[in-house]
Amino acid sequence: MSIAGIVLAGGSGSRLQRDVNKVFLPLGEREMLAYSLDTMDRSAMIAQVILVVRDEDRAMAERVIGETGVSKLVAVVTGGETRHQSEWHGIEALASQIETGEVDIVVVHDGARPFMTSKLLAATVKAAQRGGGGVPGLPIEGPVYEQRDEGTVALPHRKLRRMQTPQAFRAAPLLAAYRRAERDRREGVDTAETAARYSDVAIEVIPGDPRNIKVTFVEDIFRAEEYAATFQRGAWID
Prior knowledge:
Helix content: 25-40%
Structural class: alpha/beta
Radius of gyration: 17 Å
């Protein structure tokens, strides 16, 4: 199977109280984005990588690409105003290869999660190969409640999971799902939601990694700095 990776880097630094896109913030000895690109590039499973960025960040992205020395990056495409739109632009860039069968699996990863390991990446791909979709998730500590019209309802938190990326899917049904979502003008919160709504692939939730954090708020930076000291070349140094 030919597997393509998509790295999303179209966010901002507003919740981090920074003026720059957070994926270009320094983390250890390099920018945050470099970690995900490096892990994708070193994976024996990944044949090519698409990077999705904002137009205003393209120059910074090109600099990181050059410094990282990635060899599998085939395109840098412009993202949309939302995460879903950026996902769609990345998938759309692969459409012709998906239609001809050149790309069988697509892996979508958030560049704001710098500590994706090679092991987690491989596990999601293998899950997609087995049933159509693979997503990592972590248990939720309860209790969890939902506010409904009839009142507050306790949810079965032991069955709930906090989704992470990378998320891997068979390419053809994923492309069809995003085309249907585009037609209906509906957006998912992540790749899995759109795939679940618009395809019949079986989505397997595999164990996530608690260190695979998403850097969103100021306090996340401090934890990420600690992790960066022991994370090198797509793996943890134990």
